[in-house]
Design a protein that fits this description.
Strand order of the largest sheet: 1-3-4-11-6-9
Largest sheet: 6 strands, antiparallel
Order of helices and strands: EHEEEEHEEEEEEHHHHHHHHHHE
Structural class: alpha+beta
Number of helices: 12
Length: about 350
């Protein structure tokens, strides 16, 4: 678990909001942020890597956010974000839905425009970032749940909310393998909660089994990216299915099995290259950590994916590294110090 930004570490008070915006740009996605409290802005963001999902805790001064179609085209992590509001409230709109959320859960989709505005008080939230490809539910069926005030006080919502809070509090006592296992539990709880909100099961038993299998496969891949022997064949063998069946399961996915494994490895290595605590690790060691047997092959794949070398990416300032590190993330978040509309990834909207 790492603290991405704490406003207290920024020397000049008037620089805090700029620093916050740059951090969101570096670690999230293109978005427009504004705040009436820019001159005395305070924020603290912590992110926990759980393998297949990520968990974030955000506390900040009142802020507004807006993610436009242009922002989506500039960069899209393709995540569904399920946020638990633990302090303050937010008015949020997406896909024709609009709600005021306080104390509940709210779902947003990074692939769609959205707007959000905090009430005039400090906002605190815990957010689980779920890759669309890892969710064993049809994302299109979730449109009706976007920007809705979802219950967090009873049933699966209460179980999920308590688990998210407990996980943040206890993560420092867990080793990486435990955290990956807890990430799988988080995904299962979030999936069960969202499926319950949909009310109508919708899918046939065969479709449901296929989605469940695909979810297990994605989880297996995420948890074994460091194994250089991870290939489509090993994935198929571990799940007792044929290679043909595996490719059929990925038929509606944006990438083939091999391309998905390669991209996931590159994304993990890219993130590690700019982690301060790994600054003393050679590039080839980080490449090997994520299953790349050849340093030359890693450098070539990295340049093809991101347009820069691993060494150049590591030497870039945080905002510039984010700018160069993802083919879609070509423009950082823009920010203003005056009132402007809203929308987030950590969901202050």
């Amino acid at each position: 678990m790492g603290t991405l930004v704490a406003s207290e570490v920024v020397g000049a008070r008037e620089d805090r909001f700029d620093w916050f915006c740059e951090t969101i740009a570096s670690h999230v996605m293109p978005i427009l942020l504004s705040s009436r409290h820019a001159a005395d802005f305070r924020a603290h963001i912590t992110e926990l890597d759980l393998g297949v999902v990520r968990l974030s805790a955000v506390t900040c001064s009142p802020v507004r956010s807006r993610r436009t179609p242009t922002h989506v085209r500039q960069g899209d992590p393709e995540h569904l974000q399920l946020a638990l509001l633990t302090r303050g409230g937010v008015r949020i709109s997406q896909r024709g839905n609009e709600s005021v959320v306080s104390g509940g859960l709210v779902l947003t989709d990074t692939s769609r425009p959205s707007e959000a505005a905090c009430a005039d008080e400090t906002l605190a939230s815990v957010v689980v970032q779920i890759p669309r490809r890892a969710l064993a539910l049809d994302p299109d069926r979730l449109d009706g749940l976007l920007a809705r005030n979802l219950p967090a006080g009873t049933g699966s919502g209460a179980i999920l909310a308590d688990f998210m809070r407990s996980l943040l509090g206890q993560a420092r006592h867990c080793d990486p393998e435990e955290l990956r296992g807890l990430g799988a539990v988080t995904l299962d709880l979030a999936t069960a909660f969202l499926a319950r909100q949909l009310a109508d099961p919708g899918a046939t038993p065969a479709e449901a089994r296929a989605r469940e299998m695909l979810q297990r496969i994605h989880r297996f891949i995420e948890n074994n990216l460091g194994d250089p022997d991870l290939t489509p064949r090993t994935v198929a063998d571990r799940h007792n299915i044929s290679l043909r069946r595996l490719h059929a399961l990925f038929g509606d996915q944006p990438l083939t099995v091999a391309a998905h494994i390669r991209r996931a490895r590159l994304e993990r290595a890219r993130a590690d290259l700019v982690r301060a605590e790994l600054g003393g690790h050679p590039v080839q060691a980080i490449a090997a950590r994520w299953g790349f047997a050849s340093a030359t092959g890693f450098s070539r794949a990295f340049r093809e994916a991101y347009g820069t070398t691993p060494t150049e990416h590591r030497a870039s300032p945080p905002a510039a590294a984010a700018h160069a590190s993802h083919a879609e993330h070509r423009n950082p978040a823009r920010h203003e110090h005056h009132d402007a509309p809203p929308a987030p990834r950590f969901t202050f909207g």
